[in-house]
C-alpha cells in the first residue's frame, strides 16, 4: 500500500535515537527510513549512531566506537569516559525535548541514559528497541525497566512472554531484521555452485568490538592454519567494521593462510552466500549464518572475571543465539580455555565435507524461517508504527 505523502505544513515530529554499537546503528538506520515512510509529516532526527544512521542524515553526538566495551574487567578503565558520555547524551536529549526517545540495544549505556532522561524530563516517552536478555540473566531488569521504558520492541518471538512473566514493561515482537536481509544472505544458483566447489570458502568472524578482536584474532588465525593442514587449500574471508579494518589487516598480515578482509556490507553478504563453513565469535552473526545456511563453529573468549560472573548469572544452556532460537545446540560452542586452535580446527573440519555433522546443521537451519517468521514481516516498519504510536500517545 502506498504511504500518504507527508504534510509539509505540519510541525516536524522530533525523534532522538541512541545506538551504542554497529548492530544497533544498523537497526537505527532502518528505523529512520521507516519512520519517514509512516509518519505522515516531516521528521527531525537527532542522536548517537554510526555509519548507517549517518547515511540517513543523523549526525552522531560522538563516535560510537568510544562506547564499545566487552566484559566486566574492561569497565573500570573506561568508566570515566563512559560516564561522561552518559551525562552528555542525557543532557542533549533533555535539551532537545523530543516527542520520543528510542534507545537501541547496548543496555549498559542506553539504559543509563534513559534513567537520567526519565528523572530529568519524565514527560518524554521512551522506547527500547531490542530487549535485554532478561530471559537469560538478570531477570530483575525486566521489572526495573517499567520505571523508565514505556515500550519494548523485541527481536525474538519468545521475549514478550518473558517480559509479561517477569513483570516488565509492555513488549511487542516486531520481527528480526534478518527478515529484511534474506535475499542478501541466500545464494543464487551460481553462488550455490561456488559454495560446493573448491577451494572451500571459510568465513572468519572474530567479532565487531575491539576487545573481541584482541581475544579472538590470534587463535582464529592459528585455527585456520590447522584447518588447512587437515583439509588442504582453503579461501578465507574476514568481514570487519570500518574502524577496526586497519588493525585487523595489520594483525592478520602474518597468518599462514592470509584472509581477504572485507568492510563493505555488500562484500560481507556476498561472502556469506558462497561460504562452505564459518568460525564465528558468539553473537547475532550466528543467526545470520543459520539463515544463510553456513555450518558454523562458535568460539568465545572473555576475561576470567567476566567468565566467573557469567557462570554465576547466566540461566540458558548456550550462549549461541542460533541455538537458542532453534531450541537445540546445533552449532558447536567452544569457549574460554577450550577454544584452542587444535580444537577449533577439529570441529570445523567435518563441516567442510559432506558429513553427518554438516547435514545435521543444514537440517536445523531449514527450520529457521518458520521459527522466526522470516520473510513474512518487515521489522523496521512494525517498529516504526509502534514508535509513532508511543510518540502520539505520549506519557500517560
Helix % is 40-55%
What's the domain count?
2
CATH class of the largest domain: Alpha Beta
CATH topology of the largest domain: Rossmann fold
Number of helices: 18
Strand content: 5-15%
- Outline type: globular
Straight-line N-to-C gap: 32 Å
Describe this structure in words.
- With 396 residues, the chain is of the alpha/beta class.
- It folds into two domains: 13-175 and 377-393, Rossmann fold (3-Layer(aba) Sandwich), CATH 3.40.50.2000; 182-372, Rossmann fold (3-Layer(aba) Sandwich), CATH 3.40.50.2000.
- It has helices spanning 22-38, 51-55, 75-96, 107-120, 140-145, 159-166, 182-185, 189-196, 210-231, 245-252, 265-274, 285-292, 304-313, 321-326, 341-352, 356-365, 368-372, 379-393; strands at 13-19, 43-48, 100-104, 126-129, 151-154, 171-173, 201-205, 235-239, 260-262, 277-281, 296-300, 333-335.
- The strands form two sheets. A six-stranded parallel sheet has the order 2-1-3-4-5-6, sandwiched between helices.
- Helix 6 (159-166) links the parallel strand 5 (151-154) and strand 6 (171-173).
- Helix 1 crosses helix 18 (379-393), helix 3 packs across helix 4 and helix 9 packs across helix 15 (341-352).
- The mean pLDDT is 89.
Key descriptive features of the protein:
Rossmann fold; six-stranded parallel beta sheet; alpha/beta; 18 helices; 396 residues
Amino acid at each position: 500500500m502506498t504511504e500518504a505523502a507527508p504534510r509539509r505544513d505540519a510541525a516536524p515530529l522530533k525523534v532522538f535515537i541512541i545506538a551504542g554499537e554497529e548492530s544497533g546503528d544498523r537497526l537505527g538506520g532502518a528505523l529512520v527510513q521507516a519512520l519517514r515512510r509512516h509518519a505522515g509529516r516531516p521528521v527531525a532526527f537527532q542522536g548517537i549512531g554510526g555509519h548507517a544512521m549517518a547515511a540517513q542524515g543523523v549526525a552522531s553526538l560522538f563516535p560510537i566506537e568510544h562506547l564499545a566495551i566487552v566484559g566486566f574487567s574492561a569497565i573500570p578503565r573506561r568508566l570515566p569516559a563512559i560516564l561522561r558520555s552518559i551525562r552528555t547524551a542525557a543532557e542533549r536529549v533533555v535539551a532537545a525535548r523530543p516527542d520520543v526517545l528510542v534507545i537501541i540495544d547496548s543496555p549498559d549505556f542506553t539504559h543509563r541514559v534513559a534513567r537520567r532522561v526519565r528523572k530529568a524530563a519524565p514527560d518524554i516517552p521512551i522506547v527500547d528497541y531490542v530487549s535485554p536478555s532478561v530471559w537469560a540473566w538478570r531477570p530483575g531488569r525486566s521489572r526495573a525497566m517499567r520505571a523508565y521504558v514505556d515500550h519494548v520492541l523485541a527481536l525474538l518471538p519468545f521475549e514478550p512472554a518473558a517480559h509479561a512473566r517477569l513483570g516488565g514493561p509492555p513488549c511487542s515482537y516486531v520481527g528480526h531484521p534478518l527478515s529484511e536481509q534474506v535475499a542478501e544472505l541466500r545464494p543464487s544458483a551460481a553462488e550455490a555452485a561456488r559454495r560446493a566447489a573448491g577451494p572451500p570458502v571459510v568465513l572468519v568472524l572474530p567479532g565487531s568490538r575491539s576487545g573481541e578482536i584482541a581475544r579472538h584474532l590470534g587463535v582464529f588465525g592459528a585455527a585456520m592454519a590447522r584447518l588447512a593442514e587437515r583439509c588442504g587449500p582453503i579461501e578465507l574471508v574476514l568481514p570487519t567494521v570500518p574502524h577496526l579494518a586497519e588493525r585487523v589487516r595489520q594483525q592478520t598480515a602474518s597468518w599462514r593462510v592470509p584472509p581477504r578482509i572485507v568492510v563493505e556490507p555488500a562484500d560481507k553478504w556476498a561472502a556469506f552466500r558462497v561460504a562452505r563453513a564459518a568460525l564465528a565469535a558468539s553473537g547475532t552473526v550466528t543467526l545470520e549464518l543459520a539463515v544463510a545456511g553456513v555450518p558454523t563453529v562458535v568460539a568465545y573468549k572473555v576475561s576470567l572475571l567476566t567468565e566467573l560472573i557469567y557462570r554465576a548469572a547466566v540461566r540458558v544452556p548456550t550462549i549461541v543465539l542460533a541455538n537458542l532460537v532453534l531450541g537445540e545446540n546445533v552449532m558447536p560452542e567452544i569457549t574460554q580455555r577450550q577454544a584452542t586452535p587444535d580444537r577449533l580446527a577439529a570441529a570445523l573440519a567435518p563441516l567442510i565435507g559432506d558429513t553427518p555433522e554438516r547435514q545435521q546443521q543444514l537440517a536445523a537451519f531449514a527450520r529457521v524461517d518458520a521459527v522466526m517468521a522470516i520473510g513474512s514481516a518487515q521489522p523496521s516498519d512494525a517498529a516504526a508504527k509502534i514508535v509513532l504510536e508511543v510518540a502520539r500517545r505520549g506519557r500517560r
